[in-house]
Amino acid sequence: MSKPHLGLLLLSIVFLSGCRVLVPHAIDNYKQNIAPELVAANILPIERGKPRPIIDGIGWVVGIPSKLLLWDSRVDNHNIGMETEAAIADYLGENRLDHVKVRLNEYRPWDDMKRLTKNKSMAWPWRYSIGTLSVLGETIVPGRIFGGDHFNPYSQTIHLYSDVPAIALHEAAHAKDFSRRKFPGTYAALYGLPVVPLYHESVATSDVLAYAQEREDAPLQQEAYRILFPAYGTYVGGAIGSVLPSISFPAYYGSVILGHAAGRWQAAQVSPKDPSIAPAILEREE
After folding, report:
1. Cα–Cα distance between 146 and 61 in angstroms, integer?
2. CA distances from 141 to 22, 134, 174, 197, 199 (A)
3. Phi then psi for 150, rounded to 5 degrees?
4. What are the tens digits of pLDDT across the range 53-84?
5. I need a labelling partner for 240 at 20 to 30 A (CA). Which of 42, 161, 192, 234 fits?
């Protein structure tokens, strides 16, 4: 079998396997491993960066590839609305994630470094090696310009630059996942290996789908399918590219396209809840 055909076969197998695990499944974080020092210091769990029209305008332009990739103008728009803020605030509250800091389009690397020192739930060798490098990376390549929504497990900080509730909840789900890990440093380090991120990302996405389903929030469910499936496709493409570098380009974009197709199909299966149905049912029961 030629490499292109082998690549296409691998792409199909990996992506279809991914779709099979991207089903609603809530993370069980009944037993948490969180640092009391972070809880005590987290007086303002959510902070918002001051408007910087020029910087944010540059960031919007830099984020155009991400907007096109996920086909949503709200991605890396550096203008996060109250709906997204309220969505992540509710999620953090319901899941007892009082130690997590959320930065909405904010650049505070020194504060993140101090948070890293307080994250005693993670072994210090991980914090002061990879953890320090991660915060330095956020300092040198500021998301305030370059975007890139992410959760830093070493500082227990969520960085948001997109006004998309599903993306915000996905990053919060990573925080929830890490909060239950006995060895969060090892779990974080494994994320840097090829292919392994597929597991971490599937866990977070599945939790968001379960959260939206449990709340009977049809718009959120549809948004999660439309956004998080192609986003997962980027990790699938990256995994295939790490195994077969010669087809990394078609594998990456092919995975994203398949993600869009699968996500939109799944979103179409979600029935919007009709608020007029419930009163009618109650009236018949009476």
Report:
1. 9
2. 31, 10, 22, 21, 26
3. -160, 165
4. 999 999 999 999 999 999 999 999 999 999 99
5. 161
C-alpha 212/C-alpha 219 separation (Å) is 9
User: Rounded to two decimals, what is the model's pTM?
Assistant: 0.90
Q: Where are the domains of the chain?
A: 3-268
The one-letter amino acid code at 240 reads I
Cα–Cα separations (whole angstroms), residue 68 to 75, 213, 234, 236: 9, 27, 13, 18
Closest CA to 148 of 163, 159, 137, 139: 159
Q: Which residue's structure tokens are 């998309």? A: 164
